[in-house]
Amino acid sequence: MRRAQKREIKVETIYKAALKVFAEYGFKKATIGDIAAELGTAKSTLYFYIKDKRELYDKAVACGFRHWQDKVRDAIAAEKEAERQFLVMARKAYEYLAGDRHLRSILMRDPSLFPLHPAQDPYSEINRDSIALLTSILEKGIREGCFRPVNVAAVAPLMFSFYVLLIQRTYMFPDEEHQIMFEDGIDLILSGLKIREKQSRE
Known about the structure:
Layout: H1 2-6, H2 11-29, H3 32-39, H4 43-46, H5 53-77, H6 82-99, H7 101-109, H8 124-144, H9 152-172, H10 176-193, H11 197-201
Helix pairs in contact: 2-3, 2-5, 2-7, 5-6, 6-8, 8-9, 9-10
């Protein structure tokens, strides 16, 4: 009977509670007991789902990243033209993080979640999916004739890295100047991608 009760907790509910606790206390100070208390259950129940705090942290952050990614993907799907998809992708990702204070707090506490070297990336699969989404938009824009014919395989990871840097700078130093920098950065990227009117006529 007790075993059946443990299974009633949805995994996503556990991850959301974990994100909240990790956001408040940080990874080092947060305990499995804190997360169990947030859920209103016993610590032993959580160990039915995870082996230790590190695994719970990694899975909770991954869940947060996937939810963020899904919201952006849904917003892109509502647009038809590549240029609009690019703008929506950039701004929706920015706006989502502004509204998710738990994930935002964790990112601010733990810069290792966005490592400089891909080999050190604990969420490489998720980030590869984000790069693949960006790649599809760039390829669509080239087919539509609105983006320059760039080397998409090289440009997409570079643009993703630049975008991550803009996100980090904006939320780690939240002031008006960095918000302007974000908009200017996106405008600069899009201006470099777009085919100028003279070129398109030729």
